[in-house]
Amino acid sequence: MTNTAPGQCVSAPITFAPTVGDNCPGTTVVSVPPSGSTFAKGTNIVTSTVTDAAGNTNSCSFTVIVVDQEAPTITCPANIVTTTTPGQCVSAPVTFTPTVGDNCPGTSVVSVPPSGSTFAKGTNIVTSTVTDAAGNTNSCSFTVIVVDQEAPTITCPANIVTTTTPGQCVSAPITFAPTVGDNCPGATVVSVPPSGSTFAKGTNIVTSTVTDVAGNTNSCSFTVIVVDQEAPTITCPTDIITNATSAAGTVVTFAAPVVSDNCPGVTISNASGSLVSGDIFPIGTTMVTRYARDAAGNVTSCSFTVTVGGPRDDFDTARAEIQALRDETTDPAELKQLDRVLTLLTLSDTYWDDEVNLDAKDGKKVFSVVKTTIKTLEKFIAKSPNLPDAPMQAVIDRLVAAGRVVANLAITEATSAGADPAALAKANAAYAAGLWEINNGTPGNANKYLQKAWTLATKALAKLD
Description:
It is built from six helices and 24 strands. The strands form eight sheets. The protein has a four-stranded mixed β-sheet, with no helix packed on it. Strands 6-10-9-8 form a four-stranded mixed β-sheet, with no helix packed on it. It has a four-stranded mixed β-sheet with strand order 12-16-15-14, with no helix packed on it. The protein is rod-shaped and about 200 Å long. It starts with a strand and ends with a helix.
């Protein structure tokens, strides 16, 4: 038994010499195949025949077994780098052919995975094994690297329009989910701002980015529009009731309305032509309307009234206040005097032409009623232990103020009508004296001068008829 010669499918030359003998000399030996021959792989029979000089022959045989123990050679292709096929996480079919060689024919190659396979994303090892007819083997390996260069897809939701949440300048939390796809699993999405965020009033841009495991990215954007439809709140001052201090009425001041809104930027405005705090409000009832408008254009309004009482209203109020004072005492003398004052105040209601003007003929009687009321109440203030001072002083001040308005109205009307300047000068002088007495705290004297001013102005006006 021998081996094939390196690189050949036959043995090296083999020499042999059969052993022969004969009774006579002169034998010859012939071997087939002869000594020095090369032998094919496998079992080869050699027959040797000896022949003597007399022609007698004899033969013998033996085998030459040639064994192939030489491994085949195999060379793998270089490492292969490819990409995933569109829409899939594997490559297109990859073909390859290892290079093989052997000293004998009949080799076969098996690759795992085989040529023509698709390969998963990443590094894949291919092992190729060659086997010859004698069962000798050899192997090699190479890699098929599949790279994912396909960007994932992402589709953002449609633009979102919503409103601010009640009492806030942001929306309620908004959730959304972009639609993503990729040829390979494992893509992640990051949105800025993220789903579940609250969004400020106005137009907000959301950008969503998908990233796959290979690092490929894609982005989309959409808007979240937050609309403020919540109207501001506005609270006006309560209705105001006051009294005129002149023919024009009186200056009225009031606080600004209280406003609030879910978003900053509220402005306050007045109704067209509406009087504002610090203006002179005329006698009567005036409606004041204020508007609150926020930055989104939502508007709310509130209203209140300013009622400026004329001098006749002051007398009605004084009568009610005297009635309340009457309920404070049980003293017969005090009750009698208060009843007298009430009777006079009630009677004085017939001496008015309207809410602000006294009757030209009987108007002076109103000042007489005031005179009597002042004297009565001042006496009570000085001596009565039963009646509270402050309400009585308030009645005095109210009636003197009413006389002041009446006098001022008469002077104003006479002046507008073009009455005698000399008469008007006297009326104004008396009016100024009345004001001085008011400031001096002597209401009785003030009432006297105001009556004089009214009388002079009324007579001056009558002379024009």
